[in-house]
Structure formats: C-alpha cells, structure tokens
Design brief:
The complex is a heterodimer of chains A (about 300) and B (about 160). By secondary structure, chain A is α/β, with parallel strands linked by helices. Helix content of chain A is about 40%, strand content about 15%. Chain A is built from eleven helices and nine strands. In chain A, strand 5, helix 6 and strand 6 form a beta-alpha-beta unit. In chain A, helix 5 packs across helix 6. The longest helix of chain A has 20 residues. Chain B is mainly beta and about 160 residues long. In chain B, a hairpin with a 5-residue loop joins strand 8 and strand 9. In chain B, about 30% of the residues are buried. The chains are: A alpha/beta (about 300), B mainly beta (about 160). At the A-B interface, helix 4 of A face loops of B.
Chain lengths: ~300, ~160
C-alpha cells in the first residue's frame, strides 16, 4: 500500500464510484469481456475471494477459480514461482492470496500478466485498505477526518495499512486498545513524524463523542494466556447501544469482519452501522482494481 | 621480534589487502566475499591486531584484485574498512568501503514468514538506508526492517 500516492488512491476510489451502479447490478458491463481472471488462494478467505469473483463477473469477465490449492501441483511440491508462471500463461490477470509475507511481490517477478495482491502473510492486504478508504469516503469523509481504531492494534494488519493510507489525508487518529495490544510504537513514531495527531487510550467512552469514524477490529482469544483476561478486555472494547448514546449523530462504525462480540447486534439497526455496506464496497473497489490493472480502464 | 612480525602480517606481491576491519569481523568479511576452501587464492588474516586506531582485523587475498562492488558489501559489517590493491608489493589503489544502497543474497531476512526464507528460487533483497539512528536494512519482499545483528544474519 505504501507504493501508492494519494493521487493514485483517489483515482482508484473515483473509478470504484463510477462502477458502483454495475456492482449493484443496476447497469450491465462488458468491460472484462473475453478476459480470464485466475483466483489463486493458498489460504481460506470467503469475503475477499467472493468479492473478487463477483467483481470479475459483474464486469463480464470469466473466473478461473482454483479454489484452495490442495489437490494440485503445490501438494506435489511445486514452488509458488512455477505455479505463477504456469497460471499466468492461462489467464489475463491473477489474484493471489498466500500465507507468506512478501509472496505477492515475489510472484510479480514471475508473472507475465498483471497480479493483484489479495492479502499476503500478516502484513499486507491492500485491497482491504482500498475498500476501507472507499467506505470512509462514501459514508463519511476523508479530508479532516477524526478516526478511532479499536481492538487488536498490535497484530491487526488492516489497521496498520489503514494508518499509513490515512496519513496521506492528514487524518487525526486515536488508538483504543488494552496495553498488551497497543499499536506498534514504530507506527506511532512514523505517524507523529508526519505531523499526524495521534492519541492513545484504553477507553471507548472517553472518545466516542469526538470522532467521525470508529474502526473496530476483532480481539482474538488466542492472544491471551487466560480466558478471563480475554473476557475482561473484550467486554471493555464493546460497541453497544448505550455507548452510542454519547456518539455524534454522523458517527460511522466500520469493521473488516468477521466480528465476534465486539459490536452488539442492536447496533446493526442504527444509522451508525456501516460494516455490512463496507463488505459490499469490496465489490466496486475490486472491480476498479481489475479494470485498471487489465487496462480496460486507463 | 622482527621475524614474528613478518609471520603475522606478511606483505603480498599482488592482490588485495582489506585493512581496518572492525575487530573480530574478519571471518564475516570472508563470508560476505564468499571466500571458502574452494577459493583458489591464498588468504591470510589477522584478528585483533593493534593499530593506530585501536584493535582491528586485516585480510589479505593473494593474486586477486577484488571489484568495488564486491568489497563495498564489507561496509555492511565494517564501515571503516579500507581496500588496498597491491601490485608488485606496492599499494596502487587505496579506497574506503562505501555502504551500498542495495544488497542481494547477502543478508537473511529475520522475518521467518518472509517468502525469501522459503524454498522459492529467489535471493533476499534489501535496500540499505543510513540515518542518524544508524544503518537499517529494508526487506524488499516483506518490508521487515533489520537494524541490528547484521553479522548474525549474513547468508
């Protein structure tokens, strides 16, 4: 994500907005007519895989869904480089999801067609960041944004990547987490160096009245040595109807999903809930990325 | 006394002398230069020799003049080393090592989940940045940053 300038990000978001009626099925498109899109997923990911598939089909492309790469040559010991060389000869574009860090960058050295990183390892998931930015722009605003990110800020790759992207827009950021899951100090340091206003707290109540967007993430049980400690933390970082009484009327709540118990079901019915729309926005964003990388839109 | 000295740091007729190596790093210099038993030239080295600027290591490679590209990798672990090209017992060229901005296949990424640590047909790739805080290595695959223990992460 760090390779993108603000202008390039804006261009992707603008393209996604133009394609949104196609994503909703209101207009038919044949932009990817005759193109074969290969989905090469080495680890499970329902939303990313499905939204890429829907995006390609909505644009009239054909999808070569290789499913989870199990009964294939990979099981016979083929390396990723060879798999990419072969699949790129069969398709016009590859979407790769792989558990190792940097695998997409490596794959880009071996492919003869454009390749989109659908998430590699624990660091990069650029299309998620694009859709987060798109959701914020559609449902709130990017310029002069006050955002709080809450939950597992230590290991959550979506928030790390989002911090960097939002720094290009000068957003004010508040990080809400228990001490053991705080935002890595290196990220905070880099943000402050860029003159980004950063606050850190453990309490949602303290900040809920003063933000435009609340980006929730899942706190994983396995990060805690004892279930009691997990319960304590997860109850503290919970968005409920009560909490939202103090929120600004325009507050929007985002979540990359899946959620566990960090957002109460009663919140779904409030105008603050944005996470399901956010999941849909994955389609126009991925349509824009498919169209731009195949060159059918310049 | 003189005889002992000659044995320790004997002059070479032709080749390369790497001087002012950070004390204790001579073996890592050989590793960086990919010098092993298969290397044909005669190699001699001294560790912890007393010099004007304190203790240092020295490596001498007979009959081979190393290229600038090869020797600059030494700056990764010994930024004050000097390279002397010797011809007919005379120093014909003396240079300080210069930190390269990019290294390939020299340093192992410390991130165990980095693709460069798997069995793929690639070499590790790092951009090398020098700042007020020191030298840091940025993996071009996984973006992991190494800022210490470089010698321990040599391939």
């Amino acid at each position: 994500m760090k390779d993108f300038s603000r202008e390039e990000i804006d261009y992707v978001l603008d393209t996604a907005e133009k394609l949104e009626p196609v994503a909703r099925g209101e207009i038919r498109s044949r932009l990817l007519d005759g193109k074969i899109i290969s989905l090469l997923f080495f680890e499970p990911s329902t939303r990313t895989r499905l939204s890429f598939e829907v995006a390609a089909r909505r644009l009239g492309g054909q999808v070569l869904n290789l499913g989870l790469v199990e009964a294939s040559s990979v099981m016979k010991g083929e390396n990723l480089a060879d798999t990419i060389r072969v699949i790129s000869a069969y398709s016009d574009l590859i979407v790769l999801r792989h558990p190792l860090d940097g695998s997409a960058r490596m794959a880009s050295e071996f492919t003869s067609v454009p390749l989109i990183n659908g998430g590699d390892g624990s660091i990069n998931h650029p299309t998620q960041t694009f859709l987060d930015l798109y959701t914020i722009r559609r449902e709130s605003h990017l310029d002069g944004l006050k955002i709080a990110m809450a939950g597992d800020l230590k290991y959550g790759r979506t928030v790390h990547s989002l911090c960097h992207a939002l720094s290009l827009y000068g957003a004010e950021m508040t990080f809400v987490s228990p001490p053991e899951l705080r935002m890595p100090s290196e990220i905070v340091r880099v943000l402050r160096k860029q003159n980004i206003l950063v606050k850190e707290t453990e309490s949602l109540e303290e900040i809920i009245g003063d933000i435009d967007v609340l980006y929730m993430t899942r706190v994983q049980k396995e990060r805690f040595p004892h279930p009691v400690e997990y319960e304590k933390v997860s109850n503290k970082l919970k968005v409920t109807g009560d909490l939202l009484k103090a929120a600004a009327p325009g507050l929007k709540i985002l979540h990359p999903l899946p959620r566990v118990n960090e957002i109460s079901p009663e919140v779904d019915e409030t105008p603050h809930a944005c996470y399901l729309e956010q999941a849909f926005y994955g389609v126009p964003i991925r349509m824009a990325l498919l169209a731009l990388t195949t060159g059918v839109i310049e | 006394m003189k005889e002992k000295r000659d044995l320790k740091i004997q002059a070479i007729e032709n080749g390369t002398v790497i001087d002012h190596i950070t004390s204790g790093q001579a073996l890592n210099v050989l590793r960086i230069l990919r010098i092993s038993s298969a290397f044909r030239a005669t190699i001699s080295f001294v560790m912890n020799a007393s010099g004007e600027r304190g203790r240092k290591d020295v490596v001498k490679i007979e009959g081979k003049e190393l290229s600038v590209e090869e020797v600059n990798k030494i700056a990764l672990i010994s930024p004050k080393a000097t390279i002397n090209i010797i011809r007919d017992f005379q120093v014909v060229q003396k240079n300080n090592v210069v930190l390269p901005s990019y290294v390939e296949g020299v340093v192992r990424c410390k991130n165990s989940k980095c693709i460069s640590n798997s069995s793929e047909p690639i070499k590790s790739k790092f951009s090398v940045l020098q700042s007020e805080e020191g030298v840091s290595f940025h993996c071009l695959y996984c973006e992991h940053v190494i800022s210490e223990d470089i010698a321990e992460n040599l391939l």
